[in-house]
Amino acid sequence: MNSAPDTPESITKSTTESIAGSTTGQETPGLPPPQPEPPWLRSFRKATAWLEDALLVLLLSAMIVLAAAQIFLRNLLDIGLVWGDPLLRVMVLWVGLLGAVVASRGGNHITIDLLSRYLPPRWQAAARLVTDLFTVTVCVAVSYYSLSLVQMDREAEVMAFANVPAWWVETVIPAGFAIMALRYLGDFFRSVRRFMAVSGTP
Questions:
Q1: Do 93 and 159 touch, CB atoms closer than 8 A?
Q2: Cα–Cα distance between 23 and 106 in angstroms, integer?
Q3: 68 with 84: CB under 8 angstroms?
Q4: Per-residue b or e along 12-26, where b marks 16 or more CB atoms closer than 10 Å to that residue's CB
């Protein structure tokens, strides 16, 4: 009996499961299972995950409340918070970067691997190794140059809103990309071990 052809939904599901498995420690089809993590590292991951989730929920909730308050004040009382709109823009930046950090934790960033999923295990491991290294390079570059921006705004004493310096709120950019670089660096080393395992290299 002929099997049904792959649908876009099945391809997307398979792609997502493959990515998540390679990042979260689950076994990826065709590749050797990842090594178990030490207990202290597992505890550290759980603590940082809880902190990231808590900050993201807190900031998102505060952003929604502030935006609703601005709408209420302007439409009903014909007034508004002078610092409300600049603060909302800052909160959007922070929520976006925190969301990216959380996504890097679970391997949920958008990826396209319609070709690599059909490759042999050895070439799958090699493709994963290259993409992880490329991601680390991009994150390091963005973190470095955004840190230069933070330093320039600090020296120029640029203000974001009210009396809050711009460099205070901009620190989330280099910090966020540095965290993502570290996580993808860990993925890169795991990809190296998998490539060596499927290649038969001791």
A1: no
A2: 6
A3: no
A4: eeebeebbebbbeee
User: pTM here?
Assistant: 0.74
Q: How far apart, in whole angstroms, are the C-alpha atoms of residue 176 and residue 54?
A: 16
Evaluate whether 63 touches 88 at the Cβ level (below 8 Å): yes
In the chain, where are the structural domains located?
Answer: 37-199
27: Cβ–Cβ under 8 A, 6 or more apart, which residues? 21, 33, 34
Number of Cβ atoms within 10 Å of the Cβ of 185: 16
Digit-coded pLDDT (tens) for 81-128 = 888 899 999 999 999 999 999 998 877 777 776 667 777 778 888 888
Beta-bridge partner residues of 164? 161
| C-alpha dist (Å) from residue 138 to 62, 101, 102, 121, 145 | 31, 14, 17, 26, 11
For residue range 70-83, list pLDDT tens digits in order.
999 888 888 888 88
